[in-house]
Amino acid sequence: MINGVINVYKEPGFTSHDVVAKLRGILKQKKIGHMGTLDPNAVGVLPVCLGKATKLCDILSEKDKTYNATLLLGLDTDTQDTSGEVISKADTDSIMELSEDKVFETIKSYIGDYDQIPPMFSAIKIGGEKLYNLARRGEVIERPARHCRIIDITVTKMELPRVDLHVTCSKGTYIRTLCHDIGKDLGVGGCMEKLVRTKVERFSVEDSITLKQIEEFRDNNTLEDYITPVDEMLGNYSKCMVSKGAEKLVYNGNIFTSGNTFLKMNHEDGQIVRVYTSEGEFIGLYKFNSEKQIYKSVKMFL
After folding, report:
1. Active site positions, annotated
2. Domains annotated on the chain, with CATH
């Protein structure tokens, strides 16, 4: 079984679930999960966790993400992108009357904390049912706003009615809803025309590989070169090695004391560390209790 994270380039027409299903066939293993859904028409970075790395999905899904998007002003759709049914369309004069300065200022006003109402066409569950299932039946229900953060928006090109945006945001942000809200604020409506996710954590679109390439690398035995090991994904945590005598404890996920470490560590109370055997095998994440001088298991990766 392959363990680690692979940077997949999600192509248009595939759901994130489709990518996972295809990888299960390509790699002949079931234990696979992705970090952060991309809409079928969107493309770009989709980090996929393999084997033991699936335990990272909840940790890495929290990471900020970066996108290149095209906002199309003057058009409202039920999906908030150009794939949906048109709800309303502004006349050309209304759009052309907008000044570039006003468009720029409105877009920039979204930098910071932002309470966003998720679209009906989304995988969010309310009352045990996914919103897109309700939307396909023509139902529209009230959705609670979700807090997100727009870290930065850069306008890279403006040729009205289209505006190209470079957006860095927190997890759970819908870029098509951002486009919709900007259009609403400008009084002409708006939706998302294109979306490319360019970065998630350390993974960039330039380094991503397609499903076809993954098959090729599998066949020529070079796929390992494109897989990031589990412990490297947790490089922000301090490293702790246990002594030979304590290895049985950590293999079973048991508590060990500071005296069991290979070298004396100066960890702070509550600090989470990566634990390794004396031979360098990665075991998992442990939390240090300074009062008791013990390390307790948080997440095991054996």
Report:
1. 39
2. 4-61+202-231 (3.30.2350.10), 65-198 (3.30.2350.10), 237-300 (2.30.130.10)
